[in-house]
Amino acid sequence: MKNLPIGTLINVGAIILGSLLGLFLKQFFTEGMETIIFQALGLGTILIGLKMALKLPDGYMLVCIFSLVLGGIVGELIHLDSIIMSLSDTLKSFSGSSDSGFSEGLITAFLLFCIGSMTIVGAIEEGLNQKRELLVVKSTLDGFSSIALAATLGIGVLFSVVPLLIFQGGLTLSAKKLKPVFDQTTIDVLSSVGGILILGISINLLGIGDINLENLLPALVLCIILSKIKIWRG
Length: 234
Hints:
Blueprint (H helix, E strand, L loop, with lengths): L5 H21 L4 H23 L7 H17 L2 H16 L6 H13 L2 H13 L3 H21 L7 H13 L1 H4 L5 H22 L7 H4 L2 H15 L1
Helix pairs in contact: 1-7, 1-8, 2-7, 2-10, 3-12, 5-7, 6-7, 6-8, 10-12
């Protein structure tokens, strides 16, 4: 039990419960109610994205920009969107869902639930010191958020617990090895790049544009590498 990522399992349970409640409530929503909730989520997501994006440390603007540009190029070269769509279709087939927005719900929820300082710091704290307070707080927030997300984006939100369990649980289990990588500056840069991707979610939710977020996901890895290079070079 000591080595299990209990905090992440609590987080998964909260999202599942919230998603099931949201899917249950969805049947009672009129088209107008779904539209206004969708718009409210889009506006709320702007706030979340801005709050995260503004954590960018001084002097790391180019790291952030190059991470996004190079990440997008890598995503296009390996056709990451097609790979994610294939994995999403597998989960969709497994669930027996016919929801056309399955992939959108899964990707949106994954970014909102997994990319941020609470995820990284909370997972590493649990792995190193068995401290789960931060992940319990995150679980509460994610649980309530998943109600609104599932009610508008569908069952894909529920299945976002699969990548969450792999990513967040993996951080906890690998905490001792990963601690040197995730210094505060690197965490802030990662949160900032994640915040920009979340702003992309809001643009898609509000119908302002159509940003290929899947192919931008490599930016989350590249920003860690580039920030470490900048730190080592002084």
